[in-house]
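so my prof wants the structure for this chain in the tokens format not the other one, which i didnt know existed until like an hour ago. anyway here's the sequence
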Amino acid sequence: MPPEEIDAILEARDPEVVRRYLELHEERLAERLADQRRTIGRLLQVVTPARKRTALRLVSLRPEGSIR
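here's what i got, hopefully its the right format
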């Protein structure tokens, strides 16, 4: 989270403002994770022989029903 946003959260008096900053931060983290997962998938395609690729699949590390 950028320092400016941390300052804004610490100075905010409105809980809705705090909630929105935290939601934006969560969205950025989710986007970074998705990018990293795509990168891993591409790397697996490059380094894994074609006959073994079908046996590999990426799975979510988040348990079913967990909160984002």
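also thought this was worth mentioning. Residues 3-53 form one domain.
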